[in-house]
Design a protein that fits this description.
6-stranded antiparallel beta barrel, mainly beta, about 10% helix
């Protein structure tokens, strides 16, 4: 039987005890793909955020308004609510988590789940309200159920593991993937893919542990539009196994 892994799970469980150290040298996060340069970051990626406890990254998220962040419900669902409200920090404005010059950091005042089901990973989405307003540009959110089309190029980004079960990193990375239809995704994974999911695949690259909650973007009119949220997968970059994302157009945001 294949193992379904929420892609925050391993990193978050480690961070609750003895945290893995950030890998300083590789510059990798998403498996495969490219490191985000400062120029690319300033043009396209300022909406991505790092969610942290005790200064350690464990999940990503996407800024969708000056004080609102979307992430994956499984990043926070098992945690004590008061501890989350007291201790969660959101870092915005840097591609390098080892260099926070110019970045902004916020606490949170609220977070709300939809009808999240931890067993099936359905509705894996959480809306977080910051305790202030950032000056960084949020991402537009896709509202169309028919967008993007199957086969379209999508982009995932994050500070997650360099390989399945590997280290997180200080440097943001992105990768291009192909949008896979839900039917094709079900056939590949052998499990139910809900209408509120979107799948993406490219051989040799994938989101991984620590990328959970981060964005899946489509490039439209030379800006990145949020179409999905990193949710779960069978390992990382396994041949023939698409990653599964939460489809943001399925929710009234």
């Amino acid at each position: 039987m294949k193992l379904m892994i929420p892609v925050a799970a391993l990193i978050f469980l480690i961070s609750c005890g003895e945290a893995k150290k950030v890998e300083e040298e590789s510059g990798l996060s998403v498996v495969g793909g490219e490191r985000v340069s400062s120029g690319l970051y300033d043009k396209y990626f300022t909406s991505i955020v790092s969610m942290q406890f005790g200064g350690r990254h464990f999940c990503g998220g996407t800024l969708i308004a000056s004080n609102k962040v979307l992430s994956a419900a499984h990043c926070l669902a098992d945690q004590n609510r008061q501890q989350v409200l007291n201790n969660l920090q959101i870092t915005i404005g840097t591609e390098d988590l080892g260099n926070l010059q110019g970045a902004q950091r916020f606490g949170i005042v609220d977070y709300q789940f939809g009808a999240y089901n931890a067993r099936t990973m359905k509705n894996d989405i959480v809306l977080i309200t910051l305790n202030g307003n950032t000056s960084f540009k949020p991402a537009p959110v896709n509202r169309s159920a028919s967008y993007p089309s199957a086969g379209a190029t999508l982009y995932v980004a994050g500070w997650g593991a360099t390989a399945e079960g590997g280290y997180t990193t200080r440097n943001l990375k992105y990768a291009g993937l192909r949008n896979v239809s839900n039917q094709e995704c079900e056939q590949a994974l052998g499990t139910t893919i809900h209408d509120s999911n979107i799948c993406a695949y490219e051989r040799g690259t994938d989101s991984c542990q620590g990328d959970s909650g981060g964005p899946l973007y489509a490039l439209e009119n030379d800006q990145l539009k949020l179409v999905g949220i990193v949710s779960w997968g069978y390992g990382c970059a396994r041949p023939g196994a698409p990653g599964v994302y939460t489809r943001v157009s399925s929710f009234n945001l």
